[in-house]
Write a structure and sequence with these properties.
By secondary structure, the protein is an alpha/beta fold. It is 48% helix and 9% strand. The strands form three sheets. Strands 1-2-8-7 form a four-stranded mixed sheet. A hairpin with a 5-residue loop joins strand 7 (135-137) and strand 8 (143-146). The longest helix is centred in the C-terminal third of the chain and has 20 residues, at 190-209. The protein is globular.
Amino acid sequence: MQLVKTARHLILRHCLKQSKIPLKIWHQITAKMPLMQRYTSSERMRIRLLAGEILRVKTIVPAKGMILTDEIRITIATQAAILVFGFESVENDLSLDWLRNWNQIIVYPAPFHNGRENLLSTDGFLVSWAGVESGETQYQGGIIVDWQDDQPHPLRVHANQVLLHEMAHKLDMLDGYTNGHPPLHKNMNEQAWFNAFEEAFKHLNKQIDKGRVTLINSYAATNPAEFFAVSTEYFFETPQRLNRVYPKVYQQLALFYKQDPLFKN
């Protein structure tokens, strides 16, 4: 067992030498990222390698006067790496298969107007809305975020992880639908996932209908897809709250993302 661990460690070190992220700037950047503090030094090595690969194969594009520095690009790539850290085996495979349905992240300096009109689905869910947004996901396109909201910040009671939210939508879309049900792993139970999320979604909507203050962002009640994306934000930023309010949802997300941030806090 020790021999296997040693071999993996050597492979990681070799791969890190090829990484596009120099160690000095990596330490400077991740020191400002509260989400990174829960990972061990070995896990951070793997996230650094994964972030470097994301920078290599994905494009980060500035918009509306946004100035992209190396620090911003690496921060964004690291955020993306955190989300898929449990999916990718950096020792054996860096195919980024879970990120296959997008190629670029467009970065605005501040919230942007989406230029759309409100649109309801046949069953009454709001599926497209007009207004100013911090992030957007295009089904056959890339991801859009605004740096003002996406940049690292001290952890909050009400989660605000713009890129993780939009990436969750992309994971949701991998099976061809946007319904809050991404492709699950073989060891997961479809019915358990459905029960946990449906129960929580209905409960949140009832709280809103009764005029009560919700314990997670009420935007999650928009539709099942938004509930999954908002729950993902809480899972990574404030796992204690999500576990307290919707423990079954937390358990399903821990199985899905193959991470347990509550255990590490």
